[in-house]
């Protein structure tokens, strides 16, 4: 057998052996599949984190409204007052509860005192805000409904929250810009919104928000 014939025979044997070997095909398949599986895994983590953040924002609104409804500063000789310092204390609890959400930088809480006006209509007596996100209330601003009965209350149209005579409802709106873990930009801009409302737990002085000395900084919405 000549050397050339031997080489041809050897080459055919190698080709036949390679054709029977499936390891290369598996490696190629894995090379295509692994990036997809990694993206799928991170996508699942991102969606899970988004869902958890929705829950945390909802709970944040509920707790803020509940805490605001419990404000009762004063003695047994007079009705409890609402003070700027007490409202600031409620907002201080927001950042502690929000934890790693960095809420002050990426969110805003709008706390409104919904009451009855002298004409029997609904009225946003006062409104305070916390957080750097530049958004306004979706349901009204301080002073809306001060007179008359045209202002329906706060909340989605047709399902507004209203206050009874002689009491107040602490209505809270939470707005938060979701911060993705890794590849969340494919989700697009995600603005999470939530609302909560609690009736005040006991009678209080509804005439004004007090700011005795030493004066506290007003948590203005402007």
User: Could you tell me how far the N terminus lies from the C terminus, measured between alpha carbons in angstroms?
Assistant: 97 Å
Q: How would you characterize the largest beta sheet?
A: 4 strands, antiparallel
Number of discrete helical segments: 4
How are the strands of the biggest sheet laid out side by side? 3-2-4-5
Helix content: 25-40%
Shape: rod-shaped
Number of strands: 6
The amount of beta strand, in percent, is 15-25%
Structural class of the helices, strands and pairings?
alpha+beta
**Which spans of ≥5 residues are poorly predicted at pLDDT below 50?**
none
Radius of gyration: 31 Å
What order do the SSEs take from the amino end to the carboxyl end, as H and E? HHEHHEEEEE
Domain module count: 1
Mean pLDDT: 86
Overview in brief:
This protein is α+β, with helices and mostly antiparallel strands. It has helices at residues 3-20, 23-69, 84-98, 103-106, and strands at residues 82-83, 107-116, 122-130, 168-177, 191-199, 209-210. The chain crosses the membrane at residues 21-45.
Description of the molecule:
Keywords: Membrane, Transmembrane, Transmembrane helix. The chain crosses the membrane at residues 21-45. This is TadE-like protein. The chain has 222 residues and is an alpha+beta fold. It has one domain (38-210). It contains four helices and six strands; from the N terminus they run H-H-E-H-H-E-E-E-E-E. The chain has helices at 3-20, 23-69, 84-98, 103-106, and strands at 82-83, 107-116, 122-130, 168-177, 191-199, 209-210. A four-stranded antiparallel sheet has the order 3-2-4-5. The protein has a two-stranded parallel sheet with strand order 1-6. A hairpin with a 5-residue loop joins strand 2 and strand 3.
């Amino acid at each position: 057998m000549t050397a050339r014939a031997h080489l041809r025979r050897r080459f055919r044997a190698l080709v036949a052996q390679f054709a029977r070997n499936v390891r290369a095909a598996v490696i190629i398949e894995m090379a295509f599949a692994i990036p997809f599986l990694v993206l799928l895994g991170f996508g699942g983590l991102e969606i899970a984190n988004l869902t958890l953040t929705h829950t945390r924002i909802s709970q944040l609104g509920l707790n803020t409204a509940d805490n605001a409804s419990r404000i009762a500063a004063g003695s047994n000789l007079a009705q409890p007052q609402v003070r700027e310092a007490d409202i600031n204390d409620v907002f201080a609890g927001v950042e502690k509860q929000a934890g790693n959400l960095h809420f002050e930088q990426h969110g805003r809480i709008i706390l409104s005192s919904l009451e009855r006006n002298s004409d029997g209509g609904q009225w946003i007596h006062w409104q305070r805000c916390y957080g750097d996100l530049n958004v306004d209330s979706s349901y009204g601003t301080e002073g809306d409904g001060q007179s008359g009965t045209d202002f329906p209350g706060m909340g989605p149209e047709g399902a507004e929250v209203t206050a009874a005579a002689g009491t107040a409802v602490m209505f809270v709106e939470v707005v938060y810009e979701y911060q993705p873990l890794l590849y969340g930009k494919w989700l697009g801009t995600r603005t999470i919104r939530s609302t909560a409302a609690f009736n005040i737990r006991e009678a209080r002085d509804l005439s004004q928000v007090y700011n005795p000395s030493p004066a506290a900084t007003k948590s203005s919405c402007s």
